[in-house]
Amino acid sequence: MRDAAPTTIYLKDYKPFGFEVTSVALTFDLHPNATRVKSRIAFAPKPDAGGKIFLHGENLTLVSARIDGEPVQPEITTEGLTCPVPDAPFVWEAEVEIDPANNTALEGLYMSNGMYCTQCEAEGFRKITYYPDRPDVMSVFTVTINGPHPVLLSNGNPVDASDGHAEWHDPWPKPAYLFALVAGDLVAHSDRFTTRSGRAVDLNLYVRPGDEGKCAFGMQALKDSMRWDEDVYGREYDLDVFNIVAVDDFNMGAMENKGLNIFNSSAVLASPETATDNNFERIEAIIAHEYFHNWTGNRITCRDWFQLCLKEGLTVFRDSQFTSDMRSAPVKRISDVIDLRARQFPEDQGPLAHPVRPESFQEINNFYTATVYEKGAEVIGMLRRLVGAQGYDKALSLYFDRHDGQACTIEDWLKVFEDATGRDLAQFKRWYSQAGTPTVTVRDAWYSGTYILTFTQDLKPSATTPDPQPQVIPIVTGLLSRSGEELVPSQVLELTETSQSFTFEGLPERPIPSVLRGFSAPVVLHREMPEEHQAFLLAHDTDPFNRWEAGRELARASLLAMIRDGAKPDQRYLDGMHAVMAEDGLDPAYRALMLGLPAQSDLARTLHDMGEVPDPAAIWTASETLRDALAERLSDVLPGLHEAHQVREDYQPNAEQSGRRSLANATLSLLARLEGPARAQAQYDAADNMTQQLAALAVLLREKAGDNALHAFENQWSHDRLVMDKWFGLQVMQAAPDAVAATAQKLTEHADFNWKNPNRFRSVLGAMASHHAGFHHDSGAAYTLLADWLIKLDPVNPQTTARMCAVFQTWKRYDEGRQAMIAAELDRILALPELSRDTTEMLTRIRG
Ligand code: ARG
Ligand code: ZN
Questions:
Q1: Which atom of ligand 1 is nearest to the CA of 373?
Q2: Dihedral sign for Cα atoms in the order 553, 554, 555, 556
Q3: DSSP letter assigned to residue 7
Q4: Ligand 1: distance of its center to the CA of 252 in Å?
Q5: 334 C-alpha vs ligand 2 centroid, how far in Å?
């Protein structure tokens, strides 16, 4: 229900809890509509406890409550209960009843396909029982589960199990958000891992019967992650079992519950026939991410939810290091930057902008954002660049030694770096407190042997950062000679002032600068330099990121000129791409990335930055024209590239094979622009793996030759939810702009459009919103369709509704007509009398 005045929670108001929780014992008697939860919690008041206790609790029916065995009558509100308590340690016992089968919000204890599962982060535990549901309250949990299910799981180690009964004990003190319970008719894919100090750990991946064949890859990724964290961070696993459960209905990707990770099935289940190379890579990264949380999140957790980036930024940083080690580091870096620009930049540069460590919120679930996660990881990457790899390792050792078992803050985190390295991080801390993407402008000058690079930084004021101050920006820079030699190798230039110059003496010739190598800081870089530099860097840069970036910048410049001045595709870009494609020594995955164009939404952002109003249809047309021109220009090499990168060995989802497939598929797509769909149809017919099958289907749909394949695909895969999500999504993604809304609308009428499943909802409506020209088609049909569905979903699942609202965040970039249509839809949703707190907060911020 909508609060009359939604409450805003502030970081500055943080107060410790008045009690220690010395132990927690929970007993679950499972029933779909009437699960009973008994709690027995030992509390010890701190000196200023104040004689009463507040426990969070939502949607609970209290059956009984006792303190030290005596019945009590607490005062109950929609948010929890308050009860007078003794001035000495006491035992709280309560019994509540909950209704998992009707829990469609997928937060707390809920049911998915007949199995029980939980999601407690951030504040879901309060939907299970009355408890101080805050991350700084840590305790040891014992859990008993009674229910007629073959598999009954909770955190920690199993202590007892018999038919319909199980007991679990987790020796590591943890906050309630890491609690988990799973019960159901599941099968285990099992393995074993021995830690470097000799602890034998049982590993299980629990899935629904029928999914056994999709477990092997996830299991291997888990073992690789466990070894990597020992080798690189010196972190060992600390329980006798590690369980992972796959669940079909899940709001996010996965959850790091202690010893019992719960995964969206899309983030763990994979077989060559059903998952693409990209799916495999994502699964490997998410398994690693959740496993790495065992130390960065669980052993050391967050004091309060404002500190979310303490665990998320660090764990994303760690999982990207892992992927770089397992696969290609340059390819991973480029993919991360593409993702940052697509998801974090719009957030940082629009009405939802917030610091990496926010200072206020209404609904914490709305702050599981690209800024907290991905920019949070970028900030750690910068820190590592500034203190060096050794300084970073020293600081991390100190962090684990000093804070193990604690609930910490960003201040604690920065202090270990200051203590370990002696560096003052006061200015660096602004990366955590200021919202917005800094713009860095670079120009150069040359006076007889002296070369000067001058940088300026600019951060636009925003609601949360009205008076921005200069940040420390590490700009990795190298200087190249005109023949492509490295005159000055990469070094970190530290930009700390608003404007600052760096001088290089004694150079034999005026160099070409390669600036912001490896994307060393999350900024928008303006190069006030001739465009020829980019063509030169595309051919010669020794830094793989900047070489790719040079191609992107040439494509961007060409597209902008096409859109603004009706220019023809830039020949330097096309020739540069031709040269790159002919370089057989270059990693195929890297060359495939080179063939991509800047995202259309990113072009809209650039135009907006230039003070113009982006026209989504014009951006679409220019992008299509440039792709056609690229296909033309590469026509002599495409057939050879396509042929040379076919994989004829048995399918393996490794970096080497998937790189070859991605270049072959990128060339297939370009070839179809020249010669039509025959080659794609042949690939579709012969495909024995999903990567090939889906890539071919995408080309067929784009070429309007996909009807037969679409039917065949549906017949082949209608039994497989994860594959059908792809079938739904691809049709929307490959539709022409004027057909996107109608295609999505039609798919929502399909018998298998189970809209209460977040994956399925996103596969259609998320895909629609990600089609820039289709979502922003001037009919406004997509805006209306999305609003209709958000209205329908909000009462069922506020979290997924609120997340999807973010697709409207860029609305003020567009013309008045589009703005008026979007405003009308936002207002239509906001006018609903019982809109969730989640959606209300998001739409209010977006509406402005
Ligand atoms: N901690 C999880 C992860 O990063 C994300 C869970 C967040 N869930 C939520 N409903 N807010 O892996
Ligand atoms: Zn995480």
A1: 4
A2: positive
A3: P
A4: 6
A5: 21
pLDDT tens for each residue of 93-105: 999 999 999 999 9
643-648-653-659 Cα dihedral, nearest 10 degrees: -20
Asked whether the predicted pLDDT for residue 474 surpasses 60, the reply is: yes
Helix (H) or strand (E) holding 669: helix 655-675
Please enumerate in sequence order all residues whose Cβ is within 8 A of that of 711, keeping only pairs 6 or more positions apart, or say none: none
Tens-digit pLDDT profile for residues 200-239: 999 999 999 999 999 999 999 999 999 999 999 999 999 9
* 375 CA to centre of ligand 2 in angstroms: 13
CA of 293 to the centre of ligand 2 (A): 7
Atom of ligand 1 nearest to the CA of 312: 4
DSSP secondary structure of 305-352: GGGHHHHHHHHHHHHHHHHHHHS-HHHHHHHHHHHIIIIIHHHHTSTT
- Give the chain's mean pLDDT: 98
End-to-end CA distance of the chain: 22
**Nearest CA residue ID for atom 2, ligand 1:** 255
The Å distance, Cα 288 to ligand 2 centre, comes to 10
Q: What is the ipTM of this complex?
A: 0.98
Which one, of 380, 352, 382, 387, lies nearest residue 367 by Cα?
Answer: 352
Residue with CA nearest ligand 1 atom 12 = 255
Partners of 192 in the beta sheet?
Answer: 202
Q: Which two tokens stand for residue 507?
A: 């150079």
Query: What is the best residue among 118, 121, 256 to mutate for testing ligand 1's pocket, by most ligand atoms within 8 Å of CB?
Result: 121
CB 437 within 8 A of CB 522: yes
In 148-248, which ranges are E strands? 151-154, 157-162, 165-174, 181-184, 187-194, 200-207, 241-247
Instruction: Judge contact between 376 and 313, C-beta under 8 A.
Output: yes
CA gap 674, 575 in Å, rounded? 18
Q: Report the residue among 255, 282, 292, 305 best suited for mutation to probe ligand 1: largest number of ligand atoms under 8 A from its CB.
A: 255
From CA 125, how far away is CA 177, in angstroms rounded? Answer: 6
Of 510, 498, 636, the C-alpha closest to 574 is: 636
Q: Looking at ligand 1, which atom is closest to the CA of residue 252?
A: 8
Q: Give dist(CA 719, CA 542) in Å, integer.
A: 49
Residues labelled catalytic:
290
Q: Which residues approach ligand 1 with their CB closer than 6 A?
A: 119, 121-122, 251-252, 254-256, 289-290, 312, 365, 368, 799
Looking at ligand 1, which atom is closest to the CA of residue 254? Answer: 12
Give the list of residues 6+ apart from residue 485 with CB closer than 8 angstroms, or none: none
**Per-residue pLDDT, 6:** 80
Residues with Cβ within 8 Å of residue 798, at least 6 apart in sequence: 105, 836, 837, 838, 839
As a whole number of angstroms, the distance between CA 131 and CA 541 comes to 57
